[in-house]
């Protein structure tokens, strides 16, 4: 089973809808250990993305994700703008000028996105960032596909891994991003970026089902 | 949420319209949210740009003008601006001598300015150098973390580096002055109240009537620790001691002593705090060469203050005293 | 009560110590709580003194210096200073050309300055004239009441009259400029929050989260009416309309448009308000010749703003543009 | 019966003690329709008065009240400084260089004080100021003495009249002082100056009993 361009577009739109719906929750999480803007940042960006896709449907996976990445870079700002922007730009490059992605190609693209996040933000495991949800998700996706699971099922496993990674950020003491300024006081709070990136993976599982 | 605003989504755009209307000596690109001095680019002078989230006014837009910045990029409230703005500003302030980016050390600001520098290199022929300010001693400096925040030193740096650029120094020399200022400055801040990000609609944190936050930054974030409210005398010690512990300020040329208001603290209290800070510095053998007291790098309506010390020498004092003509800082012009 | 203070009884004295330490160009008489420009008296120049309760900083101490006041007398928070201070200041700023007292129209200020003028006449040979500012259109002007309050116009008047005194005009002429400025200026203010007088220890009034006060003065007092909070656009109309209704501002030389912060309102919001005010003036055919935006006449940490318009002519514009060098207002010097 | 210099001094000290005890109440009344400083203003002044009297006992009624008036003028500020200051200065002039005041002399001095308040502040009956308590008190004192009442009893009548005048300020719309800025909103609140001046008359009744 492959993901069609429509499904990939649907992934982006579902993520936008999730972010919009949980905008205040994301901001509240960011208020606790950051500066109370993660929800409005990402919602502003994904609203712009949806508007761009409405205005001009994209002809290929590369074009689609490049548009998403560029729009996020140009409209979000803060830490999540360059991080989510780079993620999608790397996904675009990895996906290429195709209109379908099979499981391995999708997984490769998502890993490229993860590597983009690391290249940009230098986060490591346990730093209490979006990395801590995205990285286990990409690993779970690879593992499930290697086990021969179809993409849809593999993405469900990835989404579960992301959620587990997200929850595991709660006890962590942040070492990257704004939460790091809080030192020990950052422990006991769920990372907002890990929360939004879990929505991203869950949206993929829904859209590519 | 009680604010003098219309729609929270329009706060930054509308404030920039007001700034534009109130200051004929500035030019504002509203589409890109960039404040320029009206005569930018200045031929032959290194262009200086900075930028950051809004909500810290007068920084940075209020520091645009002769003797200070050539342009400032305004982000959403507490959100770094985007690379497109910085690239556009870089192009428009280059007078042939290159452009210095002055960046406060926050993950978002650093990454966006980094992308801007990459794009500027690719898209334009402009020489770009960047300096990052990271003067906040509340945060432990470490290779494994995001490092220290850029706070009060940024104000002093933009003034001093503006004067260095005005003297006609080249890009490398201007950047060297900037790095020197950052290396010789340290800050520490505290909050009596939280503040409310317009888009969030409620205070970023709750602070009981008898508690305060020590070791805050400028984004309404909670600080390093919460302690019972104390007299100004004790608060001054909580701010000055870690600053003095981090760097030797007892040089013969003294320091610039900057007591900054976070936005909601009256000047009366800032002068009272300055009195306490000056007494502590006197006891520690630190000479005050120059002073700055007022709300210059703020966190919306947060009540509180920060203390910044900058170790001086003849050159820095001369550059500090040089004329400056901006909405936020002005003398000799 | 959350404030950067020690003992509430010492707030004014300690803040004056900080001001003294931060501003070598000022001289502070701590026993009498008088802020002087360091070179007072200036021979041959009319001496200008003002004063009032503390808590309105930078007014008045922050307006002492070349081009503005020669001395300012500081009272307790929101309490007029006493005649002894004014007599002492009068003696010390007289450079042979007499002294003008700039008094805001409050019963206490007027009576204390009156007694000071009587005492100065009896004890010293100094010529003294007084002008009273009463520009607040929130209060109905009437022979049978205390009349209108002196608010924002006081700031503009101190600047303009300072320039007139610098030009070497005599006492009567300087007083005439002062009366002209007061006659051509009007103000109206509003509050989003109350403020807390340190000695009182709790907010002067309670204001629910969804209410604001329209028609406030500068002493933390409630306003003329309480209304639901509204967008900046509507608030601007509530302030501008009564000002425009009270005096014709559509002259060819335009107005100085002054959007003032009450102490706890961020500059971001003041610029946003300025944008709304400018749009209303444009619609009303009022030309803005000069602008001033910021917290210049405050009520401790009160959140809110006031709008002041001053009808201009060539002379007033020239005097406004003349150099001024004070902690609170500075240009051209 | 005459009031001795000791009793007159005791009057001043009792007034200081009353003001100190009710300082917060006076400030609260002023917060409602003024600027929340009447209690601290008057307490600062009367504390200085007591310190001055402690340092240097005064030889005559004129000296005593002049010291009180000058100290108030020099330490209080605001409206109450010149008003109370002028009141005591006029009392001093009227009393003269004596060490005892009989009833008529005391009443004459107090009326001179009232006239000083009017000369300084231009208040009229019903303006909602200290005048509205002091004026009926002075009238009541005169009337009682004219009826042949001894000074102590006459002062009790004066104190009762002051209290009635104070209470009668509640429904008034202020026309003088800061409360006038509130317009109709000043109605329903007791005037702080009328409250403190009622303490002054009551202290006389107690001291000269
Ligand atoms: N260096 C980093 N690498 C990866 N993710 C990061 C890094 N720094 C911050 N983040 C993520 O960004 C999130 C915050 O995003 P946001 O609030 O939009 O930006 P800002 O911190 O600039 O306000 C954090 O919750 C964290 O997950
Ligand atoms: N013109 C006046 N005549 C008589 N009494 C006045 C006048 N104006 C004000 N007062 C009295 O002064 C009191 C307020 O005193 P205070 O609060 O100490 O001064 P301020 O109003 O300057 O803050 C009022 O309650 C009123 O009784
Ligand atoms: Mg954030
Ligand atoms: Mg942010
Ligand atoms: Mg007062
Ligand atoms: Mg009062």
UniProtKB/TrEMBL annotation, chains A, D:
<dbReference type="GO" id="GO:0047324">
    <property type="term" value="F:phosphoenolpyruvate-glycerone phosphotransferase activity"/>
</dbReference>
<keyword id="KW-0418">Kinase</keyword>
<protein>
    <submittedName>
        <fullName>Dihydroxyacetone kinase subunit DhaL</fullName>
        <ecNumber>2.7.1.121</ecNumber>
    </submittedName>
</protein>
<feature type="domain" description="DhaL">
    <location>
        <begin position="6"/>
        <end position="206"/>
    </location>
</feature>
<dbReference type="Pfam" id="PF02734">
    <property type="entry name" value="Dak2"/>
</dbReference>
<dbReference type="InterPro" id="IPR004007">
    <property type="entry name" value="DhaL_dom"/>
</dbReference>
<keyword id="KW-0808">Transferase</keyword>
<dbReference type="InterPro" id="IPR012737">
    <property type="entry name" value="DhaK_L_YcgS"/>
</dbReference>
<dbReference type="InterPro" id="IPR050861">
    <property type="entry name" value="Dihydroxyacetone_Kinase"/>
</dbReference>
<dbReference type="InterPro" id="IPR036117">
    <property type="entry name" value="DhaL_dom_sf"/>
</dbReference>
UniProtKB/TrEMBL annotation, chains B, C:
<dbReference type="InterPro" id="IPR004006">
    <property type="entry name" value="DhaK_dom"/>
</dbReference>
<keyword id="KW-0418">Kinase</keyword>
<keyword id="KW-0319">Glycerol metabolism</keyword>
<dbReference type="GO" id="GO:0019563">
    <property type="term" value="P:glycerol catabolic process"/>
</dbReference>
<dbReference type="InterPro" id="IPR012736">
    <property type="entry name" value="DhaK_1"/>
</dbReference>
<comment type="pathway">
    <text>Polyol metabolism; glycerol degradation.</text>
</comment>
<dbReference type="GO" id="GO:0005829">
    <property type="term" value="C:cytosol"/>
</dbReference>
<dbReference type="GO" id="GO:0004371">
    <property type="term" value="F:glycerone kinase activity"/>
</dbReference>
<feature type="domain" description="DhaK">
    <location>
        <begin position="7"/>
        <end position="331"/>
    </location>
</feature>
<protein>
    <recommendedName>
        <fullName>phosphoenolpyruvate--glycerone phosphotransferase</fullName>
        <ecNumber>2.7.1.121</ecNumber>
    </recommendedName>
</protein>
<dbReference type="InterPro" id="IPR050861">
    <property type="entry name" value="Dihydroxyacetone_Kinase"/>
</dbReference>
<dbReference type="Pfam" id="PF02733">
    <property type="entry name" value="Dak1"/>
</dbReference>
<dbReference type="GO" id="GO:0047324">
    <property type="term" value="F:phosphoenolpyruvate-glycerone phosphotransferase activity"/>
</dbReference>
<comment type="subunit">
    <text>Homodimer. The dihydroxyacetone kinase complex is composed of a homodimer of DhaM, a homodimer of DhaK and the subunit DhaL.</text>
</comment>
<keyword id="KW-0808">Transferase</keyword>
């Amino acid at each position: 089973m492959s993901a069609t361009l429509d499904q990939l577009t649907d992934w982006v739109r579902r993520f936008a809808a999730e972010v919009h719906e949980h905008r205040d929750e994301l901001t509240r999480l960011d208020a606790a250990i950051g500066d109370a803007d993660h929800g409005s940042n990402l919602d502003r960006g994904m609203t712009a993305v949806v508007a761009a896709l409405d205005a001009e449907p994209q002809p290929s996976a590369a074009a689609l994700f490049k548009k998403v990445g560029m729009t996020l870079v140009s409209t979000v700002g803060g830490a999540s703008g360059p991080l989510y922007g780079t993620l999608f730009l790397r996904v675009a490059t990895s996906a290429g000028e195709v209109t379908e992605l099979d499981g391995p190609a999708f997984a490769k693209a998502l890993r490229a996105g993860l590597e983009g996040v690391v290249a940009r933000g230098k986060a490591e495991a346990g730093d209490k960032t979006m990395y801590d949800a995205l990285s286990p998700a990409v690993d779970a996706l690879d593992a499930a596909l290697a086990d021969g699971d179809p993409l849809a099922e593999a993405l469900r496993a990835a989404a579960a891994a992301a959620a587990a990674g997200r929850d595991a950020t709660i006890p962590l003491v942040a070492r990257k991003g704004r939460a790091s300024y809080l030192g020990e006081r950052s422990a006991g709070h769920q990372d907002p970026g890990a929360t939004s990136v879990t929505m991203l993976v869950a949206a993929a599982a829904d859209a590519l089902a | 949420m009680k604010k003098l605003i219309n729609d929270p989504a329009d706060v930054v755009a509308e404030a920039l319209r007001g700034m534009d209307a109130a200051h004929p000596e500035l030019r504002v690109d509203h589409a890109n949210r960039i404040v320029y001095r009206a005569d930018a680019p200045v031929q032959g002078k290194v262009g200086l740009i900075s930028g950051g989230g809004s909500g810290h006014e007068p920084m940075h837009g209020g520091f645009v003008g002769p003797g200070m910045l050539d342009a400032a990029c305004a982000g959403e409230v507490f959100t770094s601006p985007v690379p497109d703005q910085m690239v556009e500003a870089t192009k428009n302030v280059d007078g042939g001598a290159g452009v210095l980016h002055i960046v406060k050390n926050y993950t978002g600001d650093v990454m966006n300015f980094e992308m801007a520098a990459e794009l500027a290199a690719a898209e334009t022929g402009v020489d770009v150098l960047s300096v990052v300010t990271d003067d906040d001693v509340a945060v432990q400096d470490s290779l494994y973390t995001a490092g220290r925040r850029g706070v009060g030193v940024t104000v002093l740096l933009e003034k001093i580096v503006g004067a260095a650029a005005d003297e006609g120094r080249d890009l490398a020399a201007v950047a060297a002055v900037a790095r020197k200022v950052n290396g010789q400055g340290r800050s520490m801040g505290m909050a009596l109240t939280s503040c409310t990000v317009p888009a969030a609609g409620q205070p970023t944190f709750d602070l009981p009537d008898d508690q305060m936050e020590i070791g805050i930054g400028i984004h309404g974030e909670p600080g390093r620790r919460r302690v019972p409210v104390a007299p100004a005398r004790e608060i001054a010690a909580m701010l000055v001691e870690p600053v003095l512990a981090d760097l030797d300020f007892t040089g013969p040329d003294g320091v610039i002593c900057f007591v900054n208001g976070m936005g909601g603290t009256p000047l009366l209290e800032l002068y009272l705090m300055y009195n306490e800070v000056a007494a502590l510095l006197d006891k520690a053998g630190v000479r005050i060469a120059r002073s700055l007291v007022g709300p210059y790098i703020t966190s919306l309506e947060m009540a509180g203050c920060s203390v910044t010390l900058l170790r001086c020498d003849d050159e820095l004092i001369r550059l500090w005293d040089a004329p400056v003509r901006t909405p936020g800082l002005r003398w000799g012009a």
